[in-house]
Amino acid sequence: MDDLVFEPPRNGPTLWEIGIPDRSAREFYIPDPDPKYINKLFVNHPDKFRQYGLWERYTDLYPNGDIVFTIGESDYKKDWFFAQVTRKKDEKTYTGTTWQIKFKLDSVNRNETYSLRLALASVAQAELQVRINDSSMNTPLFSSGLIGKDNAIARHGIHGLYWLFNVNLQGDMLVEGENTIYLTQANATSPFQGIMYDYIRLEAPPSHD
């Protein structure tokens, strides 16, 4: 049998991207574990994600708000937590989290369609919602619905079943200057619900040359 070559979907040139399209969240920021949970087998080990309890570190590291990632300034190796998990409010209560991607556009073609590619390395009982330039929209531009039965977060993994979503952004949703994409993980009843991103890309409209 000849080689089978998969060509990822693409509509237009890349405006920006976050991560590496390798079906893993390994390249993102993986924190040090709580000292009381350290597994000495994985100290100074390339598989740092094998340490226990890393999901709890999100609330510790971002106590006052969720991640704001600015294209051209932020570094996904340092500024993009490896999993979009729930936020712990007290011993038995959790809340969803909303991450922001801020980016600037010098010009916008309001009559064309931009493409947002969201590749997920793992999902556990999560709902991904996407909003653009208005975090208070009652109805998100996109919702995945409740998806995913991976246990990568709880089982100290870094990937699971792969998901790929393509979200169309009409040009009149964008503005010249600063724009913000809001990524919300809305399901929040346990610390193990969440999303591991693989890769995110925004594409300009296709060329008609």
From TrEMBL:
Coiled coil: none annotated. SUPFAM superfamilies: Galactose-binding domain-like. Residues 14-202 form the Rhamnogalacturonan lyase domain. It holds the Pfam family CBM-like. This is Uncharacterized protein LOC104248579. The gene is LOC104248579.
